[in-house]
Amino acid sequence: MAQQLIEVAGLENVRGPDDIGADVDAWLQEKMRLIVDYAGQNQIPGINYGRAQKLVNIYLKTKLICGGFETHPKVSLLHPPLDRELFDGLRRVFREQKTSDAAAAFADAQKACSSWTNFELQDYLAHIRAIKLFMDGRPLWMVEEHWR
After folding, report:
1. What is the superkingdom listed in this entry's lineage (predicted)?
2. What distances in angstroms separate CA 90 from CA 23, 34, 50, 64, 102, one per listed residue?
3. Coil, helix or strand for 15?
4. Are 89 and 148 within 8 A, CB to CB?
5. What pLDDT shows up at residue 97?
6. Is-contact 59 6, C-beta < 8 A?
């Protein structure tokens, strides 16, 4: 099933950073949308944006970040796979940074939907916004140092 969804999104054609769209966020969202739409059209249960982001982001992390392209500017904009372990780590960090914009954005995102397996697009984007604030220009994948 995962391989089929990877193919539906066209991810198997990604060989390097040049295969990522110019607007990385829009490109990622399109890959996720293709997966969610395909699942809906083919009565595949349980595939929402939370599960689609996990598949897309883990695939690209493995292919590009672990594949030696981690310093490329487009790769630095790839989103980390969001899950409970990352959220637990970020909650620990934000307990100490309660007044930061990132902490407030993360708290709002978690209040709206704290379980990545239930994410719709707006929930996913709210968490990514918080991570972007927190990372402050550093590669987004580096947030995984807080994964617990």
Report:
1. Bacteria
2. 26, 29, 18, 24, 10
3. coil
4. yes
5. 84
6. yes
Beta carbons of 47 and 110 less than 8 angstroms apart: no
The whole-angstrom separation of Cα 112 and Cα 108 is 6
Can you read off the two tokens belonging to residue 148?
Answer: 């617990």
- Give the CA count within 13 Å in the CB-facing half-sphere of 127: 27
Cα–Cα–Cα angle for 17, 23, 25, nearest 5°?
Answer: 95
What's the mean per-residue pLDDT of the chain? 97
Q: Give 144: exposed, middle or buried? Use CB within 10 Å, 0-12, 13-18, 19+.
A: middle
Q: Is the pTM of this model over 0.90?
A: yes
Residue 111 sits at φ, ψ, to 5 deg, of -65, -40
Would you say 8 and 16 are in contact if contact means Cβ atoms under 8 Å apart?
no
| Cα-to-chain-centroid distance, residue 8 | 18
Return the pLDDT at 99.
82
pLDDT tens sequence across 89-111: 999 999 988 789 999 999 999 99
Q: Which residue has the tokens 């969610």?
A: 36
% of the chain surpassing 90 pLDDT: 96
Tokens found for residue 129: 């916004």
